[in-house]
Design goal:
Elements (H helix, E strand, L loop, with lengths): L2 H12 L1 H12 L9 H14 L5 E4 L3 E6 L5 E7 L3 E2 L12 E2 L4 H16 L1 H4 L5 E7 L7 H9 L8 H7 L8 E7 L8 E3 L3 E2 L1 E10 L15 H15 L10 E8 L10 E10 L2 H22 L2 E8 L11 H9 L6 E3 L5 E2 L5 H5 L4 E6 L2 E2 L8 E2 L2 H32 L7 H12 L13
Parallel strand pairs: 3-6, 3-7, 7-16, 8-14, 9-15
Antiparallel strand pairs: 1-2, 2-6, 4-5, 8-16, 10-12, 10-13, 11-12, 17-18
The structure holds zinc ion (ZN).
Zinc ion (ZN) binds next to loops.
């Protein structure tokens, strides 16, 4: 470790109690995507008052972005602002049920610690290019019924913060991103270096309109919308045998009933559905089967059906750890064990980092320091050093190694990355959904 790297680590150690308090404060005040106003204020205060930076605010509602330096290449370190609804979590906010059971507050601690260490004038003068600290809203996908309300109010048009920011041009001057998360696949090391593939997903809003009638006097005059859902779900259950295990297709549904009474045939049902798969091709295949099952079930009962598809997240392009990340992890090996990702392991969850990975190189690592399951009531921080301080050190050391010496490592990372989608192609992809994307989508080809 050279003297600058020692300075980075000493700075984070010297502020360990403030960083831990910062993280714990956010941990206990989780907020919903695109409404993380308090969390954003905490990040702004930290970047301004502790780091002497001048953050931009209000990006896609709550995003906060501060730049150290103005030259290129610019490498941004990302922290996600939002919580997840999990009312059973002991730190859930009682009024909203929001919690940080996905550990996004840990990412914000990493961002805060890295921003503090890299803003030290002696460290900052070693950086050739810009280190950008970007706290982004809403990683946890907004379901379509809420998204439609956000659209009407002009708040957001995408179900995730990074797609929203990509479309708004907030990443246009960023050359590469460093992302972090609590471990998402089983890992007994403190750091998992690189990106596993994650599934992409599409959102569907399925509206079924039947006919109300008295359930006892005249059930024959009704059209039961809930029965349509039951039949469609049975068909989808049987169709599972036509989905390849290797494609990791997952279907999540929330069935919402209108204002029905128990003695009225259920006449209106809305299904919020999310279909995930490892590849775009498998996603479209499963999507068509779901459409057919619902349409056929509606036909069987004589119900009206409307299916609207909406943009979800793209699959994450897997990536081996870059040299800077491996070197940084080796510098911390006396305190934290690490290993590189295996491409044989697929993460069946989805993240909007997938969208980012189609536009720029993503340097990702995940970390330990917690127990229990992500999004579960049993999620707990078990080791504050591993959850908050070591990720801050790894992020800062990686950024430093990327940007030092004429940013040679950053330049190499950028030069060897071929974006599967241009900014224009990404906008076109999003536009398809804006135009309705009802029923059969025309296949979008990914290289
Ligand atoms: Zn998460």
């Amino acid at each position: 470790m050279n003297s600058i790297e020692q300075r980075i680590c000493s700075c984070i150690d010297a502020h360990a109690s403030e960083l831990t308090a910062f993280a714990h404060d956010i941990y206990t005040h989780a907020e919903t995507g695109y409404a993380e106003h308090r969390t954003a204020r905490q990040v702004v205060d930290w970047l301004k008052n502790r780091c002497g930076l001048a953050p931009e605010t209000g990006l896609a509602q709550t995003g906060v972005r501060a730049s150290l330096g103005t030259s290129r290449p610019s490498i941004c370190l990302i922290g996600e602002l939002d919580g997840i609804r999990c009312p059973e979590h002991p730190f859930a906010v009682p009024e909203t049920g929001m919690s940080h059971a996905c550990g996004h507050h840990m990412q914000l601690a990493a961002l805060a610690g890295a921003a503090l260490a890299l803003s030290d004038p002696l460290v900052a003068e070693q950086l050739d290019g810009s280190a950008v600290f970007f706290a982004v809203p809403c990683e946890e996908h907004v379901p379509m019924n809420r998204l439609n309300q956000l659209r009407q109010k002009g708040i957001a048009s995408c179900c995730g913060g990074k797609p929203e920011l990509l479309l708004r041009g907030a990443f246009d001057d960023i050359d590469a991103a460093v992302t972090t998360h609590a471990h998402m696949v089983p890992c007994d090391k403190d750091f998992l270096l690189g990106s596993n593939s994650t599934s992409g997903f599409l959102s569907k809003l399925i509206h079924i309109k039947g006919r109300a009638s008295h359930t006892a006097i005249a059930p024959e005059k009704g059209v039961n919308a809930l029965d349509v859902v039951t039949l469609a779900r049975s068909a989808i259950g049987m169709l599972r045998s036509t989905l390849r295990d290797a494609d990791c297709v997952r279907i999540g549904e929330v069935v919402r009933m209108g204002n029905s009474a128990i003695n009225v045939v259920p006449h209106e049902v809305t299904v919020d559905l999310q279909v995930r798969a490892k590849t775009w091709e498998a996603l479209l295949d499963a999507d068509k089967k779901i459409d057919r099952a619902y349409r056929a079930a509606a036909y069987a009962f004589g119900a009206e059906i409307t299916i609207t598809d909406d943009m979800g997240y793209l699959p994450t392009i897997p990536a081996h750890p870059c040299q800077a990340l491996c070197e940084a992890a080796a510098l911390l090996s006396d305190r934290a064990t690490s290993e590189p990702v295996s491409f044989a392991v697929h993460n069946a969850a989805s993240t909007d980092v997938g969208d980012l990975s189609h536009r720029m190189p993503v340097v990702n690592f995940t970390f330990s320091g917690f127990s229990g399951t992500l999004h579960g009531a049993d999620f707990r921080i078990t080791n504050e050093e591993k959850a908050y301080l070591l990720p801050a050190k790894l992020a800062a050391l990686t950024m430093y190694r990327l940007l030092r010496d004429n940013a040679a490592q950053a330049q190499q990372l950028i030069a060897t990355y071929q974006p599967p989608m241009s900014a224009e192609a990404y906008r076109e992809y999003a536009k398809k959904f804006e135009a309705g994307f009802v029923g059969e989508p025309s296949p979008f080809v990914f290289r």
